[in-house]
Amino acid sequence: MKAANGSDDSVVAFVDVNIIDSTGKEPYHGDVLVKGKRIISVGDKLSPETLKGARVFQGKGRTLMSGLCDAHSHMSFNNSETMDGLTNLDIEEHTLFTARSAHIFLDCGYTMCLGAASVKQRLDMVVRDAINQGQIPGPRYLANGQEMAPPDGALIPGITKFVNDADDIVKAVKVMAGEGVDAVKFSMSGDEILDDLRAEDTTFPDDMVAAGSEAAHACGIRVCSHARSDESVVQCLQYGVDIIYHASFVSDSTMLALEAQKDRVYVAPTLNFPYATVHEAQAKGFPVTNSQQTAYTRELDIAIATMREMKKRGIKIMPGGDYGFAWTPHGTYRDLEHFVKLLGYTPMEAILSATALGGEIMLHPNELGKVQPGYYADLLLVNGNPLEDISLLSKRENLDVIMINGKVHKETIGDHPLQYELEKSLAK
Ligand SMILES: [Zn+2]
């Protein structure tokens, strides 16, 4: 797994920390040692000899935990005030914006991001590659392409790759896979933000889902879907879609089918977008029509009940929130708060979904998402205890140290955060 990294022999120690190791164990006090990119020891008190050559962070009881995962990232969403405004940037500015979003995700403690569609085809991939080559700071990133939809099924035409039929989607999937995406995205239902293509409308015919999904898997990449309607969720389950976004409207029989595939499939509800649209957009000066307000209020209520039922059944629910509109700008990531306040998660359960499950959805369950020997050193030193107040993790100023791949991205000495790596390297 690539990502810009610490040099192979650098040794970093976190001493006197409260460790949330994401194995499900209650937190415990101890030290953690990192060598190169990986965690070497967890919990045991480090000897003076070990600490001698190491760079030491004194935890003073602060929390050490894994970096977080956002499973529905749109780094190229440009904090637009409108849907169509997502395309307003020219390619040069848009590339810089996307790189900046990657930086912000990492500044906010997200060391794992799963792309959920790129406004222009190569933005996600270019930024992923630049991160992996160490050119820019950012999380580990699985890149998506433009979202695909049939001619009358686009949510936002300007950001859509149109596909006409089964042959066409196979061709498009192969082209995207050849260009290097990690996943493709099918836009399989409407959305309550639109008047003429609603959340319970289904856009893909069966044969296109089947052919597209089969082609993606044959190319070794995964399939994500925008699927709010019950019928679209059924199609996801029938044709092997790997990651189901939204899944608000799920009938009893679909819930059973989903439960039967709970080891294979992930659901990311992206509650922040409807939540912010219903509760905050107007007050922030962004107009929401009455019909949008009514429709999203209803969907949010239904989605919350659906997710609570999924949680009961052990279906894997991921944080990730569709950030990147003017009323949900990058840097305001707070899905874990929603999991606790809206879905009844304990803070520990919310953290496990963003860390241990994050490592799973990133396809490295034995190397990412836990504070364990042998795992990659993607670590947060948090000022406070997120098990007492999960909202601590929604504010980047509470993250005193951010490490990715053994490399310190951010550090704080006393009350003074040192400049981040990007600013530092630009100043040279
Ligand atoms: Zn999205």
Automatic annotation (TrEMBL):
It comes from the Eukaryota. Residues 64-408 form the Amidohydrolase-related domain. CDD domains: Met_dep_hydrolase_A. InterPro entries: Amidohydro-rel, Metal-dep_hydrolase_composite, Metal_Hydrolase, Metallo-dep_Hydrolase, OTAase-like. GO terms for molecular function: hydrolase activity, acting on carbon-nitrogen (but not peptide) bonds. Pfam families: Amidohydro_1. This is Amidohydrolase-related domain-containing protein. It comes from Serpula lacrymans var. lacrymans (strain S7.3) (Dry rot fungus).
